[in-house]
# Entry
Amino acid sequence: MNIAYHYFATKTLAVLAGFSEPEAHIIAYACQYVDEAQESEPITIYGLPEPSFERMKKDELDPTCTGHKGLLNILYNFDDVRRKVLLPFHFMPAGWNAAHTSFNYLTKAESPPALELVRLALQKLRTTAAGSPFRDLELIRLGVALHTYEDTFAHQNFSARNSKQDNAVKNPQIRVNGRVRKLPAIFVITGFLGYSIGHGLIGTFPDRFNTRINYFDGRGKSVSVNTSTRFKTASRQVYSLLREYTQAPDDWDQIWPRYKHCQNRDQSSRSEIRKTFSTVYPEIDYQYHSLSWRHRAIKPYQPGTYVFNGDLKWIHFHHAAWDQRQYVLSFLP
# Structure
């Protein structure tokens, strides 16, 4: 999924489920920032608070990279990117079978490992009272987990591996907003070069609203994708998980007729997406800038160094993401 879902839909669903707007914004910002956090080298930051997790030490933060830089990492075929970024955050494996004798790397909608991430985050949030200095950390942990859970709907039947059997796409036919779209040449070339990673051979189309895709997969099976149907199911489930926490009444039948207008068409820009959601929900303030948390956390000092600026949300994000990565890697073969 893209920002239309990870930030805009997620914030909307959190508010509808009973979260305050400020807390819904933290959840949704963290959810979207998973796609944006691409720093991977240690950063010198003077004046950091006491280290709170192992990626921190005095005057240094080693950020947790959760976002991939598109074709750059595919073309260089980095194993670390697939194992440490794609797999724990974007293409959660279905996991072990009941007998624990075989492991399925394909992503499955609502897979138990992805659902467990959300439930663990909600459990931690329940033990962190409003006003606690750790409240923001647990809201951010929930946002990171929701990103992975939401992606299981869009990325189902693909994997983080470089595998033609998992990820081959043959004879794709694509319609966006009812119009036929051709696959950009770069994705065709990627396939010719032998890279079959995630849904890279059909670009970002599985992540977009109001898109239909038909193709044959690496096992010769005919696959038909309707993202509107997938995203409706995802929205129902995300709403249900969040309202379990707030104990709000289940008003989905009343919510859906209004909410569905946000997903009726694919938008080509962030400003279009914001306009669509703001038109349907004028009472919700949608504000997202990928650098806002970073700028509130650190400011430039000397060349190549920074000084702590007082806000912890950006640091909390790297803490929560590191915890999720380690948790997921712990159950892999």
